[in-house]
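User: Hey, my collaborator sent me this sequence without any context and asked if I could get a structure. I don't really work with proteins. Can you help?
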Amino acid sequence: MEYKDYYQTLGVGKTASQDELKKSYRKLARKYHPDVNPGDASAEDRFKEINEAYEVLSDPEKRQKYDQFGAQWQQFQRQGGQPGDFDWGRWSAPGGGSYTRTVSPEEFEDMFGHGGGFSDFFETLFGGMGRRRTGGSGGFDFQQTRQQARRGRDIDHPVDITLEEAFRGTTRVLQWDDGHKIEARIPPGVRTGSRVRLSGQGSSGGDLYLSVTVLPHTVFERESNDLKTNVQIDLFTALLGGTVKVSSLDKTVDLKIPPETQNGKIFRLRGLGMPDLRTPDRRGDLYATIDVRLPQNLTDEEKTLLRQLRDMQAIRT
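Assistant: No problem. I've predicted the 3D structure and written it out in structure-token form, which is a compact way to encode the shape of the chain:
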């Protein structure tokens, strides 16, 4: 059986305080949370390892037993022992063992909201998965809650939204066959692949996930939180310089075109892209690609002037 170094998993020392543990746990949990890394199996595995480590180290009783076991394990290894020869029996918890643990509702949601499965190492040391909170008001009965979670079934519901809706945020009203309605808020900054969770709105108490698809836009192309667009200018503005209007999703700004701007030149307009899903006040950028349009239906006089310009350029080169 593989030994789990919970301190290394959370990136803390063995003398870390509870505040240090919680700070490190929250930082890592946000980084590897399945909602932040949809479809990333390695991130989900890492998320489960982080939860398991915090489950042990944040509980004084389990942490004490883990530290005692760790000291024995290290001594056994220093003496050249092989994992298969280690006496696990004296450390194994009785089947169905239960420990008292007090956590906040936010911690409970982080640790168990995405399912989980602790490792064989954890099960060997700490027994069954039952968790109870005792004393106080408003506490969780972990065993009952997990049984309810097992009975529930999560539901995925596809939702198509426009880029403008993804920019500003929007709502959708869902109605079930029995007439029950849910108004779901979709936050600004979502992108194709984002999943908006409605806790407890699935089957038998499970969760409802809105799987978002942002529809293609006729003007803008999205890349992460950045937007790309083409800006058409005439030949004379490209040659002599000038100012053109560039529209983003919420405003129109003036873009100064330097003289002799080449076709395909890209200008970066900071802060005119999409809002960040986690930090809506922070926005991506807008990248404007210059598309020089040549004049059409030239008169004979205009053609003559252009030939003169061509000849002048040829003499210079």
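In plain terms: The radius of gyration is 30 Å. You can pass these tokens on to your collaborator as they are.
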